[in-house]
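Notebook B, p. 112. Complex prediction, attempt 2.
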Amino acid sequence: MELAYIQLRGCSGCASSILSSPIFPSLLKMANIRYFPLITDFFSIIDPLDLALVDGAVSNKSQRDFLVGVRSKAEKVIAIGACACFGGFKSRSETASRISDIVKVDNILPGCPPSRKQIGEMFSSILTGEELKLSEKNVCSECKFTPKLNYPIVIEEFFPRKMPEKCLLEEKTLCLGPITRAGCDALCIKQGFPCEGCNGSCKQVFSAALTEFLSLLEIPPKLESQVKKFCLKFQDQPVI
Amino acid sequence: MEKNVRLMTRVEGHSEIITYRDRKKRLSIEFSMPMFRDIENFLVGRRIEDVPRTVARICGLCPVSHELACCKALESILHVEPPRTAKMLRLLMLLAELMRSHLINFAFMTLPDLYSFAISPKRTDIIGVSELNPKEFRKVLSLVQTADEILNILGGRAVHPVYPVVGGVAKPLSKEDRDELHRIVEGAVKSSSWILSLCNKLLKDVEDLKAFNLSNRFHYLTSFEMNEDLYFYGGDMKIASDQGKIVEDFKPNNFSSYIKNIKWSGGQFKFLHSTNRGIEHPLMTGPQARAMVRKTEVFRESGVDSKNILFLNLFRLEEVSFCIYRCLGLLEDSQITSSDVQANFSYAEGSNCGAVEAPRGTLIHQYRINSRGEIESARIITPTNVKAYGIGIAISELLKTFSEMNLPENDVVEKIKMAIRSFDPCISCATHTKNQ
């Protein structure tokens, strides 16, 4: 299999997760790496590719042109990580876009970074030729807490000050678990942090789910801007 | 002027090597980082609790360093002192990150260069190495995975781990996890001394090794105290002379009184140590600076060669061993499993700095926050920012040496790329802001 790994604007976290994951040696065996500037000395992609893995967001014209060139040579393109899948971190001054805004993407592997399990599943799906199926459930389905929620959900806290003992939303602390795609084993919540949505939405468009979710919350005015900022960290599209 | 842009390979992030030939056919070389991310502006208006996890995303190789520099800065504004156990756990994580980053650099970026002298593989990358020496390849890789595993256990994942919080860390370490960590770290002791001797052996085969010597008298920036309780957790900043003698000692908040930065090329700054006698020294930071201050074995034994750029790899690998022993020390301290891991705090306005020893050197975060606990302004100075000018000086000096050796242009460029890899620049970190 002829494979290329392309890094656009990102942090090398996705690539380094792959390099240090136990699956890496078998990746070397199964694939012929034709481009991966972080670890090889190929300067360009010359021959047709079976698969291009792309991480990072598109932030300038040369990246855009390069990506279009990659697409024309690759049978299949998979977006790796939250930046490639959703555009990554955005601030008002930025113009970064997700790669599916520029080229056709065959599949995505979200997460910031994708978990070791998700990376393993992706490579075994590539090996077997089966379609990579992302979970359609939400993070709550993997969480050790089962929420017993009354609507509207009252939010009083922005961030837990101690290890949570029950569902964060029940503790009136904001958590994006209900609208975020499963696959991470509710890692952040296990660590005592609220879910920040890096795995994208379990529905098709993150922002639609987000708008719906926000309408179920009762947020005090002093927290409104914080909640919005938090929710839009890994946005799919601008909300409102 | 004839200009040629080549992609720089085997370094973190996107960078380019630009060569110029003037009318007299003289060669000049520029190392360029043509990309900008805008993290600082992204932080403005955010509540401080969410900032450590957010700044981690600046870099996938040193996220813990960013989290810790951020926590330290915010804690000094709020006058919060994390409990000793929290500091131990943070340090454990930082050491694991140093190992991980150094080993990724060695395995994937540097090792193929060193191998190319010893056995000239078909291709100069990890794939070439893995084909020629699968056993060594697996051993190096398993060390990388060890560092990964430590971060996984503490932070849930190796990249952008979720663990440090303002005031401490999110949860205590269980005795079972402590034992598991101890087993993992102990298992890596042998391989870590093996990898250092491998590097030593390969360096001996490098032709023209002496040509990589630098004559420049850099000054060296670090941020840890030799006799601090949690050695290497760090705090105050130090500048050492090129002999390793500490010449300045100051709080991170006062860095602008000692370190001058002047606009330079390519959106980067010149970071200079400006002495009270008005002399300016270009700054270096990272494993070499730390080895000089710690007077490590490699530093003492290498003598003049400690100024050799390829010896940076030895300093890095010697530090991997140091990290392993330091981790064992922490894990054997009974306080590490204490449940006291978070100090309470309330919001207060103010501004301050925090510094930490990241894999590539001293990392500084500076914030101003308001009484509602929101970030008003942020400034982040990364080790690669600090040494970018020094790397530029090194490139010019090497270019002069190699030009005098009458090497063909391609060989000169390849050797300079090798030198740049030894500096282990982190482009994601260096280009985190627009307003550099």
